[in-house]
Amino acid sequence: MSIKDTDHVALYYPYLMPTNSLWLKQPLFYWDHIQSILPDNAKERYQVLTPDLQFLEAEGIFSTIDPGYITYLLDLDAIVDDVRKVLKSSSFPLLKKGIFASLGISYEASYSHYTPI
């Protein structure tokens, strides 16, 4: 079973794993999945999953997220498309000038930038 975009996911935090079975059982009434932030190598090396967590993982209800893997949060294609739209927009030079002005940077037509110190 994989997590769908419409599923509700409980993220166990701030510890690596639920510390008691009561915490583990209560979210199952309200959430479709439970996840915990845990490096993949620590999960395998230290065998931190309890028998309950192993069962829930086998059923696709519990999973871990490696903190080094952030792309699951990002829709990279959408970000590239948004940046492409901005760069191709006829108002991009005005937008860029406004951003520089909001940062206190003088924008010159020669593409030199002066920053107040």
TrEMBL record:
Origin superkingdom: Bacteria
Protein's recorded name: Uncharacterized protein
